[in-house]
Amino acid sequence: MPSHRLMERLTEYIEENRDLFIEDLRRICREPSVSAQGKGIEGCVKEVNRLMSEVGIEAETIPVEGGNPVILGTVKAGSDAGCIGFYNHYDVQPPEPLELWETPPFEADVRNGKIYARGVSDNKGVLVARIEAVRTILNVMGKVPVNLKFMVEGEEEIGSPNLPSFVRENMNRLKADGYLWEGNGVDEKGRPIITLGAKGILYVEFRARGANRDLHSSMAPIIPNPAWRIVWALSSMKGPDGRIRIEGWYDDVIEPTEVELKLLEEAPFEEEMKKRELGLRSFLNDLTGIEALKALYLTPTCNICGLNSGYTGPGSKTVLPSEAMAKVDFRLVEAQRPDKLIVKLREHLEREGFGDVEIVSYGGYEPAKTPPDDPFVKFVIETAERIYKSKPVVWPTSAGTSPIYTIKNWMGIPVASAGGVGHPGSNIHAPNENIRISDYLKAIRYTVALITSYKPSK
Prior knowledge:
Number of strands: 20
Structural class: alpha+beta
CATH class of the largest domain: Alpha Beta
Helix content: 25-40%
Shape: globular
Mean pLDDT: 96
Number of helices: 14
Strand order of the largest sheet: 1-2-6-3-7-19
CATH superfamily of the largest domain: Zn peptidases
Strand content: 15-25%
Distance between the termini: 17 Å
């Protein structure tokens, strides 16, 4: 661990250069980099590469066939110094609806102690904070005490379709003692949030067809209605109790450990506030307390994302549709595999008499978790408590999905998400996305402390 005086000097450097750090982040945020729309990717890649090179990170942009480039960055400290890896992404969500933004989404406006921009919280603020941490250490200490590797992809917001193949082809280059994933941030009380994994996902579309064209609804007694086929197929998959009825769906599920359940018991859960915020009287099936958290973080899900069939415009139109469609995502928990589950899904539809319903797969992720007692995880947590002067909120996994499995499952490297710049009002994926400048500077301090305090396991 660095001396008290050295930490003071590192902190002083961050404060002295806050304007530079803010402007660097604004410059990156002005590059649209919307992967879903293919906008601004090249410009953002150049800016990230430029910033990395400027601070002393050896940056390389690697083309990805049919996709957006991956930026790899390295800072060398020596063969015996150990290695920390950082995962981030430079792509962002589309900014629409534009009319709800108070200032243009790629202007990166600064007001009231905050920076407003699409992607500033998810995830450019974290990316730039980590780069500026390297600048701070190199300019104050002259070198880093641990080897560093950066992997910055450009397709996270569209499901990272090319990341698995990239990781498989570059495993030797990506090796590290542990990876710090894109960070969360702080909660309502300023406590740092740390997550140790992510659920997996299987995303599919169901399609049903009837006659070769839409018909008058008077034909309903003799003509099959594909909308009903979709509704009945969906109802066969999940009951009102929330349990998935597909045979064998839970076969591979690994039950949470006592340590993981203890983390949920210790985590703050403002459920009444959340229900008021969402206009709900109760959660699904009247879940509350630890049971609600177990369902949210540790239970497989089957969720209807969208339904479409027939006439949905104003007024009435008596029509019998010729086609129907539903989009569904299944969130997966530890040890479930999307490739195995889609087979079970197809078998289920055949068995239940819905063999005519087509399944279109949009791919999936494996779930991944790092145990709370892993030495790298303990180091990440202890460093957060020291810098934020507050006990971190540690979640055993995330309710959402991220390609953590490519590092944790395939390479056996521990992964933790920490040191983020977000706060409860960051409006991630929504208009007026923002971060507080104070959280951004704290994230730089945290990353500096993590790098300067790390000791590799012997």
